[in-house]
TrEMBL record:
Signal peptide: none annotated. It comes from Ruegeria intermedia. The keyword Transmembrane helix applies. It holds the Pfam family MFS_1. This is Predicted arabinose efflux permease, MFS family. One of its GO terms (molecular function) is transmembrane transporter activity. InterPro entries: MFS, MFS_dom, MFS_trans_sf.
Amino acid sequence: MLKILRNRTYRHLLAAQEVALLGTGLATVALGLLAYDLAGESAAMVLGTALTIKMVAYVSIAPVAAAFAERLDRRRMLVTLDMVRAVVALCLPFVTEIWQVYVLIFVLQSASAGFTPAFQATIPDVLTDEQEYTKALSLSRLAYDLENLVSPMLAAALLLVVSFDSLFWGTALGFAASALLVVSVALPSPTPRQPRGVFDRTTRGIRIYLRTPRLRGLLALSWTAAALSAMVLVNTVVIVRGDLGLQDSAVAIALAGFGGGSMLAAFVLPALLERLPDRPVMLAGATLATATMATAALLSAVAPMSLAMLTALWALVGFGYSSTLTPSGRLLTRSAHPEDRAAVFAAQFTLSHACWLVLYPLSGWLMTQHGATVAMAALTVLALGGLMLAAWAWPAFQPRSIAHDHPDLPADHPHLSGVEPHAHPIIIDDLHPRYPHAP
């Protein structure tokens, strides 16, 4: 897996992702504690609202950012957005009112909505071999899991000597370091084959996404993953501080369980995906995570869980969560031409975060009004619905090359190449606006 680090451009991009997420992880812990400090037992509702604002920014800004990104130098765009995030992070330690949290979170996450899809779409342009890209996805998953494992552990250590608001300074440092690493390499910026209007560029990625069967299945799995992760990220602080009566550092330990399970999955997946297709691996991961959350609901109904039990359950949820979403980059890359890739990654970013937009506030409301057992049970039911929809929407077997015709094209059109029957892997584009049915 580590051989791909010989590629200097990818190595710098991965390092940029690592340091940015290290800072983001500190902010995740600090934001939960800030919410508890400002709102006490209503922290779940405050944090849920803050995360909802984050999702609103992601859903509304990402498609627009993708539309304009194709006309911008990708490296300059990424560096600028990193610096915006760093400035916002520097403001967070001075927050004294809940509304200030909401405003700063919107600005911060608007910058992230432009940064993340463009960054993700750059990786397959740098690593064009699918096996190398699969390994890169796992390494990226490991980088994301710093937010759930290494960062909470670091936060727990720092909280022994500093107040929680000091953690936001580490967030700003992480974004600044990310900008320096991105500016140190040259990045590819694929250009469109033909000029398009703003509306076409804004909606193109979502149109390609929703017309591709495997991506419709991915959207359903994203719903499942969002339901389960919402329970973990929104409600862990209240379970640990309120229900269990433990200290701030215990919150970091419980979240580290989720991150540890996710990291373990990331190590296993490259070898597993060489032997099995994406669909069964992703469905199995979603099934494991859903079954674990159902178990947590049952155990919570019987008696209060210990920190060790909660951490172990969160680790299993994290393993299933990572197994569900890590291969998604492979599906997105196969489903778009290089010039449409950023738009399709932005579509996944937008649509998956639309799921969180619904489920984050719902999770906080369920926890606040009905407690942990009801919240876990309700979110398990929602996750199961997404799992069943994914199994239906994503065909179990689909030939790689699909025979189809183009009655609207002349027989000498270059796309037809004079070959009959006309068959090739289908990617939604101007010549293939719909996904044909396999014969």
